[in-house]
Design brief:
The protein has 380 residues and is α/β, with parallel strands linked by helices. It is 30% helix and 31% strand. The protein is globular, with a radius of gyration of 21 Å.
């Protein structure tokens, strides 16, 4: 099947191309299309190329079946209606907003240009579709940074709060959601659904800890693995990586190795962080994900590892100046909270302030850029 690169800056163009790709049309390449083959396996609808947070490009092949299975399972879980696209159309969560709209036969609302609270509220104010005299429920998908922007604005502007409360469900994925932010969103009437997944699973496939129908999650040596109809067919042009990441059991079941640490207890999936996101400080293993979760309950920040002459490596906090008016007080509070929750060796050693946290198009922190800020050899 032919693969056609597409300009992801035109969401309406992506929508039209996806409508064709879900039928008999050519497959769509989103993200960087450099050095990609011009042909893809039959059944492929979308190839999403992303560097993610690691900076290593991956071109994920998603079939029509995987995309539509995810869209239908989402509708079964949270209902169907009109969707608002507030994410880049090149990001898998943005793709799925458009696919859900196509599968449900509804026209998505689209927030174009730079994301802001006023722009969000303006687009939401026009979402008043009805069917048979009954208002059609509305849905959207956001990342935590966007939700933070909206909640901060809603504290001062009731119109933003009404926009948040108007959705039947707001899917939040891409990064851990601080409990304090969810509580603030709840106070404004927002109905938040935490999602877990990736491009390799056609987007979120676990909602509020519960896998979507047909999706199975298990742990092998502490690593979360996912099986089901939403799995990617692998990485275009990289069969070796495909073989490492997607494995088959003797019974033929195909599993995606997420690289995430976690557990599954009584059917509830809990993600504790990346398996390899660990530093060694003074001979003690420290999970940067655990440290970051604690810090983000205090203020928006990212935690990376930085070289340290005495301890080898230590956690370092990177935050926007607007979030940390008093760096010394913020560091003291973070060190105390991290020591209580994780342990003394995990305490951050310093705070690096920037004008704004560098982010990828998906809204996730750009950890490659953040590691560079922390110094040579640093890692997240």
């Amino acid at each position: 099947m032919r693969l056609e690169p597409l300009d992801g800056d035109d969401p309406r163009g992506v929508l039209r191309a996806l409508r064709a790709a879900l039928g008999a049309g050519p497959a769509v390449a989103l993200g960087s299309a450099e050095r990609l083959p011009t042909d893809v396996p039959g059944g492929t609808a979308v190839v999403v190329t992303t560097s993610g947070s690691s900076g290593v490009p991956k071109s994920v092949m998603l079939s029509r079946s995987a995309l539509t299975s995810s869209a239908l399972a989402t509708a079964d879980r949270i209902g169907s209606g009109q969707w608002l696209l507030a994410l880049p159309a090149t990001y898998v969560a943005g793709v799925q907003v458009l696919v859900r709209s196509l599968v449900q036969g509804t026209e998505p609302a689209i927030l174009s240009g730079r994301f802001s609270a006023p722009a969000f509220a303006h687009v939401v104010s026009g979402m008043h579709s009805s069917r048979g005299g009954t208002r059609v429920p509305t849905y959207t998908s956001l990342v935590p940074a966007q939700l933070q922007t909206l909640v901060d604005a809603a504290d001062a502007d009731p119109a933003i709060g009404r926009a948040l409360a108007s959705f039947q469900a707001i899917l939040i994925g891409g990064q851990a959601l601080p409990a304090s932010l969810r509580e603030r969103a709840d106070a404004h009437g927002a109905r938040i659904v935490r999602t877990y997944g990736s491009s390799e699973t056609a987007g979120g496939c676990v909602y509020d800890g519960v896998p979507l129908d047909g999706v199975r999650v298990a742990t092998v040596e502490g690593e979360l693995r996912i099986a089901g109809p939403t799995l990617s067919d692998g990485y275009l042009g990289d069969p070796a990586l495909t073989e490492r990441v997607f494995v088959r059991e003797a019974d033929g079941t195909r599993w995606y190795r997420t690289g995430d640490a976690g557990s599954v207890d009584d059917g509830i999936v809990r993600v504790t962080g990346r398996i390899d996101n660990v530093l060694v400080s003074g001979g003690v293993n420290v999970s940067l994900d655990r440290v970051e979760r604690v810090v983000r309950e205090l203020f928006d920040a990212v935690v990376v590892a930085a070289p340290d002459e005495r301890w080898g490596e230590t956690p370092v906090i990177v935050a926007a100046r607007s979030e940390v008016p008093d760096p010394d007080a913020a560091l003291a509070a973070a060190r105390a909270a991290v020591e209580a929750a994780v342990g003394k060796p995990a305490r951050p050693s310093r705070v690096i302030l920037v004008d704004a946290l560098p982010r990828l198009a998906s809204g996730k922190p750009d950890r490659v850029a953040l590691r560079a800020l922390a110094g040579p050899g640093s890692r997240s």
